[in-house]
Amino acid sequence: MDHTPERFTGSFTQQEPIPEEGIAAAIEVMRSGRLHRYNTAPGETAEVALLEQEFAALTGARFALAVASGGYAMATALRALGVGSGDRVLSNAFTLAPVPGAIASVGARPVFVGVTEALTIDLDDLVAKAGQAEVLLLSHMRGHICDMDALMEVCRAHGLRVIEDCAHTMGAAWAGVPSGRHGAIGCYSCQTYKHVNSGEGGFLVTDDEEIAARAVMLSGSYMLYDRHLAAPGPELFEQVKYDLPNISGRMDNLRAAILRPQLAALPERVARWNARYRVVEDGLRGTPGLSVIERPQAEAYVGSSIQVLLLDWEAEAIRAVVAGCAARGVELKWFGASEPVGFTSTYDSWRYAAPEPMPESDRVLHAILDMRIPLTFSEAGCALIARIIREEVTARAPESGP
Q1: pLDDT in the model for residue 263
Q2: 78, 89 in Cβ contact below 8 A?
Q3: Is residue 6 part of a domain?
Q4: Which of 3, 96, 205, 287 is surrounded by the most beta carbons within 10 Å?
Q5: Exposure string (b/e) for 246-267, b if CB count within 10 Å is 16 or more?
Q6: What is the pLDDT, as a whole number, of residue 402?
């Protein structure tokens, strides 16, 4: 009888191809030579302006701005709210480097708020730290959305303005409200591993016309703001156009051309991601020593990645699980390593932030295993992945009880 362990052979970094419609539109943009968003022929509407209009409709926002990256969107949002040198900005302890990086880029200092075992921001810790800042840059890290009604109640009570980092929640919602639409500004990413893929790129949405006008000017509109379809009227730009620096970060027409059909297909892509997520989740539930993150009923999530916890495991045992899975073709990222590896860094990795120790959050961060679920995986492949992780964790699970 063959006892050779099962092995997964798929690629965790292989994305689906750009839709043919997007490829054809990109070729047309290249043939025209008019890649710059404001370089339009008479009577022509730029691909970027059309994309912004479509993204505003998708999210239900009054205004949308397409930019060079999700990180740029966050920095622009901070600047549009007047955050500057020496200011403090609250943000999650569980996030990725572009979030505190955006805060530092405007001369401000991140103040980290704790993470719960649900991998969402600790609202009690937020209440405790609310008086230290006027802005919360809330990261829906790895697609986990906290109770947004409760969070906004806290923020209103303490005068906190909220910017939502929706890099992992484009297409998600809380209690029927699209992610990014609870706070003053929502920011999104179109980087390769996100829910639409233009290599790099991002969006900013808001209902506030002054914020929208400020963001357009900051992005580098060269007084060509009349070529936007999802921006305020000219009177708003007259009020702000001489007071804001041009910090160029526009999206170009080539990226917009390949994004438009992907945006139209987003609901179908979300359904496919969630089907794969549930296969992995179901396969892992009940594994000794492993905690699955149960999703709240109010949360409409996008399962493009999955996280599990090995709470209170020794570091060597977690490393052994990661290595054992890797030997069988399954790539897990561990957030508890002493040094950042790839995309996995924690709040104490960013020394420019001078963070205070957070022991309760450290316990959670130490336990997090993270895995991408590309749409190039089949559901059968996802079931195989779950079996491999289950076997590797079970083989190393700490003894429970006497």
Answers
A1: 98
A2: yes
A3: no
A4: 205
A5: eeebbbbbbbbbbbbbbbeeee
A6: 41
Residues 189 and 332 in one domain: no
Query: Can you tell me whether residue 109 is helix, strand or coil?
Result: strand
The pLDDT value given to residue 256:
98
351 with 392, same domain: the answer is yes
- Count: domains in the chain: 2
User: Which residues in the chain come in under a pLDDT of 50?
Assistant: 401-402
Nearest residue to 122 via CA among 398, 334, 360: 360
pTM of the model: 0.96
Supply the pLDDT for residue 175. 98
- Check whether residue 155 and residue 59 sit in a common domain: yes
Listed residue (295, 303, 298) closest to 149, CA to CA: 298
Provide the pLDDT for residue 109: 96
Contact criterion met (CB below 8 Å) for 393 and 310: yes
Please classify residue 301 by burial: count the beta carbons closer than 10 Å to its beta carbon, then call 0-12 exposed, 13-18 middle and 19+ buried: buried
Same domain, 71 and 183: yes
Maximum C-alpha span of the chain: 79
Query: In terms of domains, do 65 and 209 share one?
Result: yes
We report the CATH number of the domain holding residue 379 as: 3.90.1150.10
Give me the domain span that covers residue 255: 20-264
Helix, coil or strand: residue 33: coil
Same domain, 86 and 33: yes
* Cβ atoms of residues 93 and 110 within 8 Å: no
Task: Looking at the structure, tell me whether residues 155 and 114 fall in a common domain.
Answer: yes
In which order are the strands placed within the sheet that holds 202-206? 63-67, 202-206, 185-189, 161-165, 135-139, 88-92, 109-113
How far apart, in whole angstroms, are the C-alpha atoms of residue 116 and residue 195? 25
CA distance 74 to 102: 6
